Amino acid sequence: MSRIVDLPDTIPIFPLPGALLLPRARLPLNIFEPRYLQMLDDALKTSSRMIGMVQPFERPESADALHSIGCAGRVTQFSETEDGRYMITLAGISRFRIKKEVEGFTPYRRCEVSWEGFEKDRNSHAEQDDTFCRDSFLKTLSRYFDARDLSADWETLQEADDELLVNSLSMLLEFPPEDKQALLEAPSLTTRRETLVTLLEYALRGGGEELIQ
Q1: Are the CB atoms for 35 and 75 separated by under 8 Å?
Q2: What is the pLDDT confidence band of residue 212, given thresholds at 50, 70 and 90?
Q3: Backbone dihedral region of 145: left (phi > 0), alpha (psi from -120 to 50 degrees) or beta?
Q4: SS3 of 136-171
Q5: Burial class of residue 50 in the structure, from the number of CB atoms within 10 Å of its CB (0-12 exposed, 13-18 middle, 19+ buried)
Q6: Domain limits for position 100
Q7: CA 20 to 30 Å from 135, out of 24, 34, 105, 109?
Q8: Pairing between β-strand 50-54 and β-strand 10-15 as defined by DSSP bridges
Q9: 31: nearest Cα among 94, 112, 106, 87
Q10: What gap in Å lies between CA 16 and CA 120, rounded to an integer?
Q11: Is 19 helix (H, G, I), strand (E, B) or coil?
């Protein structure tokens, strides 16, 4: 478990719409913009090797605004391609709350953050969902996949532990950024699973019109 004292007060921010990172999960990223290539270079020079993933607001009048809660990940793998891009993997460490943006001379954004309130994110053991009805959940998921002509390894999904299943689907499935933010901010795995089911069922209704009988 990482203590707050071990976590940096200021971290670089990567505002990428729709990209969700959760604690104890892994997120592959393709870095190619010059400012974020520099962000990665700078992060790799620090002991924490940490980058904060944050959803930007989509409203035109809030083009530069960020959601207040994000998730920090540690760079655990990286490789450089022949054309100068970086392929990296972030391991989710903990959610954080943005306190303020830090002015500076870097081409990327940096924020002062608070780690308080997210202590359970930093536990080494996976969170459990004691009210999880897996059969019902997988039936809803199967309908969603069928409606979008998606395939899945159902045996693996059946055997995955609660957190791995719910968090992986929350990260991988295509939902609008605001819905991804709701999944991130869920206070417990149970709440995240309930939110995920609501999003799946809403998508199946086509926003109010039932697509699948």
Answers
A1: no
A2: very low
A3: alpha
A4: HHHHHHHHHHHHCCCCCCHHHHHHCCHHHHHHHHHH
A5: buried
A6: 4-122
A7: 24
A8: parallel
A9: 87
A10: 25
A11: coil
The answer to whether residue 161 sits within a structural domain is yes
Torsion of CA 165, 8, 51, 19, to 10 degrees: 40
- CB neighbours of residue 189 within 10 Å: 21
CATH number, domain of 62, equals: 2.30.130.40
Please state the domain count of the chain: 2
| 3-state DSSP helix/strand/coil % of the chain, to nearest 5 | 35, 25, 40
Whether residues 63 and 10 share a domain: the answer is yes
State whether 96 and 26 are in the same domain. Answer: yes
Q: Is residue 128 part of a domain?
A: no
Tens of pLDDT, residues 125-172: 888 889 999 999 999 999 999 999 999 999 999 999 999 999 999 999
Cα separation, 144 vs 97, in Å, equals 33
Contact 115, 46 (CB under 8 A): no
Please tell me what DSSP assigns to residue 64: T
Tell me what pLDDT residue 141 has: 96
Rounded-to-integer distance, Cα 139 and Cα 120, Å: 30
Tell me if 212 is assigned to some domain: no
Q: Which two tokens stand for residue 195?
A: 């939110």
Of 60 and 204, which is predicted with more confidence? 204
